[in-house]
């Protein structure tokens, strides 16, 4: 029975040096030859994954944790953050000296010229500090934003802005997405387009933004390097991403 394989990028496909292990590439190519469909499911934006999509020849992906979905090269679902809500968050954050980064499918821009927190977290994605465009959110659809604050400063955002979700992905940064917009809702939108059933999906991930995806998928695999909560919820825990974890999982599941 052909499966739809949903692959997170950072810490799942890419190792701790942000490189794609040769074993993972080989496993994916073999799985495809065996009739399985490959899709990316990531918190990143489309413009941040063009290199890996090209390298793996994948044209189906869930990005921005479910807000922007493409099937066979065509956008099939887009959900922007409400612009007035986003402006309220922007003003609230500005009063607290918390910069914001706005993202659409093509690029990311910053509310501030340079900030060390933006620099630190965006560098982990191997991306340069974004250019400044303070009013970007007023004239453009924004599918995901980032607010830069430390963990102990985060709760006020949850309390004040109930109509969006804040998910921490870095020491100094939280994703902002429309309420309930997750990789899980992305999967539901995607399987309608691919014709797969939920039972035929296998999710591979490592982070907290993979939890709902793992809960909804027919079967789920967490990487050994993953968050403890993610490993607890997964159907199966494979080896570390740096130790051929993905290829080993594919073998274990008889996908290859």
TrEMBL record:
Pfam families: Hydrolase_3 (PF08282). GO terms for cellular component: cytosol. Signal peptide: none annotated. GO terms for molecular function: magnesium ion binding; phosphatase activity. InterPro entries: Cof, HAD-like_sf, HAD-SF_hydro_IIB, HAD_sf. Transmembrane segments: none annotated. Keywords: Hydrolase. The lineage of its organism: Bacteria, Bacillati, Bacillota, Bacilli, Bacillales. This is Hydrolase Cof. PANTHER family: PHOSPHATASE YKRA-RELATED, PHOSPHOSERINE PHOSPHATASE.
